[in-house]
Each structure stands twice: as C-alpha cells, then as structure tokens.
Design goal:
Elements: E1 13-14, H1 17-24, E2 34-38, H2 46-51, E3 56-61, H3 64-73, E4 78-81, H4 89-92, E5 98-102, H5 108-117, E6 124-130, H6 131-138, H7 148-154, E7 157-165, E8 170-171, E9 178-185, H8 195-206, H9 213-216, H10 218-221, H11 225-228, H12 242-258
Parallel strand pairs: 2-3, 2-5, 3-4, 5-6
Antiparallel strand pairs: 1-8, 6-9, 7-9
Helix pairs in contact: 8-12
C-alpha cells in the first residue's frame, strides 16, 4: 500500500531513512515530551519519533489517503485527521509541546506564523522546509534573504540551520533543495515595545524592502520632516536587527501619540 503524492498538498515523500532519523533527533532530550508532527505522510519520520520512549507523539494529517495508511501501519499512533492551520492548539495542548515535521512547502510560512502565535506554548520547532524558507528564517541582517519571517521569529527564537537536503531523496523529487532547521525559544517573554505595532512596523517596512525606511514607513508615520530626519530612516529594512526594530517601534509609537489629532 502506497500513498500518491498530491501536488495540491505540496507532498514530496522523504525516502532517506538516515535523514528522517536525524530530523527525529533534532528535538533535544530535555524539552517537554508532547510532540506534534505535522504532515506525517507515510510515517518516514513518525517511525523514529515513535521509537523514542521520551516522546509523547501526536500527528496531524490532512490527506485522507495518508491517514488510512498510517492507521494500518501505525495503529498505536495518536492521529488527527485535519488541517494544522485550523487546529486549536491550546485546546489540544494545555501545556507546552514541541512541533516537528517535513512541512508542506506550500504552507510552511503559514505554519511558522501559527507557531509564532503560540510561541509561549512551543519551546522547540524543528523539521524540514524548502531551503529558501529555511534560509529566510535563519538569515541575519544584511542578507537578501532576511525579511519579515527572519525578524518576527528571531525576536522570540534562536535559529539553527542544521543541514541541507538534496532533491533526489524525495519521491517525487521537488524542483528545489530543502533544509532542516531548529528554532529554540529564547528568554524574551515580551519585547520592550508594543508587540502589535512591532509586527506592523516590520511588515510595512519589508513590503517595500528596496526602499529606505523613510519611504517605506511614510504611510505609517506621516510626512513629518523632523521625525523622518532620524538616522534610522536612512537604512533599508534588511539592515536592521530585532533590537533596532524594537527601538524604531518605540520611536514611532511616541511620535504617533504626540501627533495632534485631526
């Protein structure tokens, strides 16, 4: 019994057992035992997670054909048939849990944003992503791949790029390379700024990433020449680290609160 890879679900089944084993081992031994695997497919990663007696594994799979396969081959598995993006994580995991998977490439950024919404519940996120997305998550300021995902995730997680995975170890082989990364929750409970405005500033800045901050944020802060003369507005968004975005957010918040109401 085999599962057909479905293009609309972004399915590419990993064949290399050694890589699957390495991904399973990317969850540190000292983290909370509940683990949620996203998109187990035919269980190539699942089998190694089930071998670990310290892991209390739950899987969520949207593909019914894969669900049938998993129920036959891993009858002991706690399995949810459904969409991770619609999952009520606090209801499923009242306490902390780890997230792992060979994530579907077509929704991998959405998966990370959902995990970020539950950052205080998820101490570790690990697994395989499209290489471009993995590089974006792990990228440092000054790189072309540095962007919204980089800043928002690095504000709360330490990122490790573990290794690159080539196309030939998948069935069917994707047209892009993949990479395994691990995100470990840092000690930042709350940013030293309005976190909602921080997200707005970061997203607004990178929506026009080729422009200077002065031009990309003008719609947000207005045309006050004196305020926009601050040196930070001379930079492009990819040149600013998390702390600089925090400082900028505080400056913008103070500016907007002091602006006369219309």
């Amino acid at each position: 019994m085999q599962v057909r890879a479905k293009k609309f679900l972004g399915q590419h089944f990993l064949k290399d057992l050694d890589i699957a084993r390495q991904i399973a081992q990317s969850i540190p031994a000292d983290v909370p035992t509940p683990v949620l695997e996203v998109g187990p497919g035919m269980g190539v990663l699942t089998q190694f997670l089930l071998e670990n007696p310290n892991i209390d594994l739950t899987c969520i799979e949207v593909d019914h054909e894969s669900v049938v396969y998993l129920k036959v081959h891993y009858p002991q598995l706690k399995l949810i048939e459904g969409d991770f993006l619609r999952l009520d994580l606090p209801a499923l995991f009242p306490d902390k849990f780890c997230l792992i998977g060979n994530y579907p490439y077509n929704i991998s950024s959405q998966i990370l944003f959902k995990a970020l919404e539950n950052k205080d519940r998820i101490p570790v996120i690990s697994g395989m992503f499209q290489k471009e997305v993995a590089e974006r998550v792990a990228s440092k300021p000054g790189n072309k791949s540095y962007g919204i995902l980089s800043v928002l995730l690095q504000a709360y997680y330490d990122i490790e790029y573990l290794f690159t995975v080539h196309e030939h170890v998948f069935d069917p082989p994707p047209k892009v390379k993949s990479a395994v990364i691990r995100l470990t929750r840092n000690q930042v409970a709350h940013l030293d700024c309005d976190e909602s405005m921080f997200k707005t500033v970061v997203k607004t800045a990178f929506n026009q990433r080729r422009k200077t901050m002065r031009n990309s944020l003008r719609a947000l802060v207005g045309n006050n020449t004196e305020f926009l003369s601050d040196e930070v507005f001379n930079y492009r968004p990819e040149q600013l680290g998390v702390e600089q975005f925090v400082d900028l957010t505080n400056k913008i918040a103070a500016h907007l609160s002091s602006a006369p109401s219309v």
